[in-house]
Amino acid sequence: MFIRRGTFRGPFCLISAGSAGAFLGFALWVSYTAFVLNDAGILKENGLLENVQVIILALACLVYIVPIPLEKRTDKLILLFCSLLCLSFMLRELDVEYFAAVPDILKLAGSGIGKRLILGAGFISIFVYASLDFSYYKNAVVGFLCTISGRLLVFACIFLLLGAYFDKHESIPYQVYYEEMSEYCGYFFIYLSAISIVAGSMTSRVSRH
Description:
There is one protein chain. By secondary structure, the protein is an all-alpha fold. Helices cover 77% and strands 0% of the residues. α1 runs antiparallel to α9 and α4 (76-93) runs antiparallel to α6.
């Protein structure tokens, strides 16, 4: 197999259960704040919900990156793509140009043309490298999509597409809530995908011993 399979046993079960509890608790609190307390500020741009989304993406990005230099694995390019994808979502959610404490060089790199150049160069480099052995990486991607990690990413994609739909239809009642919560769910599934890869690697090492 090109991709180590994730597992719902052991570490992944414990981490995902705890994360799911925190995820649902925060989602309920956001819903209570927005609808019962009638405080829509929690849904605004750069508000608390978006900041939590960025934290989830940052964790997922780090978790995807960790196995790359530490292990001998054949799916490193896929992990690198997933981490870059997390970074692109983070920069989409963060308007770094409006943060006074952020150095100008980071504002330039994290917004506008700088952001597009960096992300574009990263994704193009990955696709060019993969094209050098297209058959191998095609099979690797198909194999990845058959794992728990890949399926979780598919679920994430569904929620993000749903969020994009709500973003384009402002006439829908509570449109901002549905958009932000769809994205929140999508990012959480990305996080679960990341930890399932690491937990699967941990389980494989334990079983070998």
